[in-house]
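Study both lines:
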Amino acid sequence: MMAKLTDKLPEGKQWTYEVKWDGYRALLLKSGERVRLLSRKENDLTATYPTIEAAGSKLRAQTVMLDGEIVALDSKGRPSFQALQHRSAHRTYAIVFYAFDLLHVNGEDLTQLPLTERRNRLPSIVKGSGILLSEPLPGTPHQVIEAVSRVGLEGVVAKRTDSRYQSGERSGAWVKLKLDKQQEFVIGGYRSGPNGVDALLVGYHEGKQLRFAGKVRAGFTPHLRREVFEALKPLQIATCPFVDLPNSKTSHWGGGVTAEQMTEMTWVKPTLVAQIRFVEWTNDGHLRHAAFLGLRSDKRASEVRREA
């Protein structure tokens, strides 16, 4: 079940609020002694996160399915999406699973029960396992936003307490408010540099067309530049996948891409998704001050749309 983007949190006793964690959405499944972690694309992530697999084996149920988020936490308990990307960072960050929903337990399907009933059964199942609970946040929407902003978290998710679990749906029973501007974009090309990727060209789908959103140069370490370059190399294609490039007559490295600059680019099959943080959308529909946060193996490129 997915959340619709909103610019204002709903208010009322029928709504509950929780942190929007900056990580990978996943299902945790336990059957006897076997534990699996599955991404939204149904990729098996179990081997990548052995500490979560170990915690999942201690859940107090013979069979169980949890919905939640894989998150990398620093020493102060703050999530880092970038740390989640790199195995080397797993030694200095705690890799945890925040559970926020219970879908099945011991052969019983709970998806048609109200959210409050599903949640009420979570604590006894995760107790002592190392799996963490994404707890409801007390207070009014204003108080919740203030508290989440103060500690620098990504956003808030609001859910109707009576909502049934609708797999794959954005019904409006769950909504998300982002407090910083970031979203997923599809990589359609890049400009190479001495350390690998110098800049990414990213966009989003509008119908079946891939529209250009902007160039991304910030947020890279030398290691990241090489890593992303290696991921993009097998995807090279001869023609530009963006329907609206070239789109500028100015030759400086600004928001658009000139016909001359098109020759500097390497085009790729638009299948890789990147998480990008930015300040705002410009009037001509480009990202201002965009920075790379990481690749998203849990998102389908075909689903990426402009969110705001």
The mean pLDDT is 93.
